[in-house]
Amino acid sequence: MPKQLFTDPQVGYGTMSNETIEDLDMLQSSRPGYGTRSVLEVSLNIVNATVGSGIIGLPFALMIAGFSTGIIISIFVSILTFFAVYSLILTSQKSQIFNFSAIAEVAMGRFGFHILNLMLFIQSAGSVISYFILVADTIPILLGLYFPQYPLLADRQLVTILVAVFIIFPLNLFRSIGALARWSAFSVLLLPVMIITVLVRAPAYSREHEAPMIQVGKDPIAAMGIMSFAFVCSQVAHSNYLSQKNQSLSSWKMTSFVSTLLSWSISISFAAIGYLSFGKDVSSNIFSNFPVDDNVINVGRLALGVSMVLTVPMAFYPARDSIQKTIGFETADRQPTPMQHYSVTVILFTIFLIFGVQIRSLGKVYSVVGGIASSFLAYIIPGFAYVAVFHPNWLSFLNKRYQIIAQTQFEPLTGLPINKVSAKPTWWLDIASIVLIIFGIIVMSFTAYGALV
Question: Contact, 240 vs 47, CB < 8 A?
């Protein structure tokens, strides 16, 4: 049935009508003026994309940063996240480019496009490996506890491999992630169960552990990487912005603020309770701090294990897409053949599974992936894109292409609005963009150095 859609006049994106739901969905995913969601709905979508398995490692991040230092770092990272998400859309409104990869290409040329694909691959690969580690840390423990007559069910590697091959692998064979929408929704519903069980039971163990409040931890830089991994959401900014009905900058600023505040509040509450309960003994996977016979926590372990089984494809698909684009199997005018598609799927899945079974340090995965890939995606690309579009003369000494950008008059998308959106730089975003770039480079550099030594 035709669907009438009226766009907010203050946005300047005209009135669209008589689009089918399918057409509307396709248009909403690629260009402005077709959004249907409220500020609150979009904010909650961003929170859902942000508050994922990374929250499990935040108590550990507070421990290695020091509690008070960690809280300050988390506030700083959240503020930078707000600036990044807001400035990214401001840059898109000015350039009329509403695609993360294309924005990266504007900022850094073809090098930016390829390095973005690499970082998206590292981010996705790290997520898949962390999910396998969490599966290995939960399901074998539960099976061994409740089915002691079958000792093989407690074997960490064997159970993880069986679950991966017979349950997780088939979910990764589809070409489109849309086929997993229902499973994804079910997985999201398990997240509150997991968090609530920890919040309910963790305080009961606080007397057994020392939790210093004012002390600088042993590795604040690694904590920054873990927090970057937990808070990164720049890669979903465009899709959420395009789904928002009121696409004015003031409305998006409110969305950015609400989503960042909610994500920080939920994440830091979980992190603080976890740290204050287990203190200096807190593990990178907080569930490892609880005894295996705590039945309430085992409900959370089950929720976490099942959620990770269903979440692996959410990270695997982007990693596979990055590889297929890089090696030329997928281009603008062709899709991978069945042989290419299944070959890449099998090879990648096998590699990720091997790492997931062999690696046990969840904190190491979070800090390295967060420090390298998440920092690039969350800070460097948004900051560099803002400077490249609004102040290309600042970069003209690097490349003549920025002199060309400086002379470019960006126009609205063809066939869309008559009225232009007023996207102008501000002094506070100028400062924020520089801070984003510098902070991202520092975290990336120290993390890379730490990983090598």
Answer: no
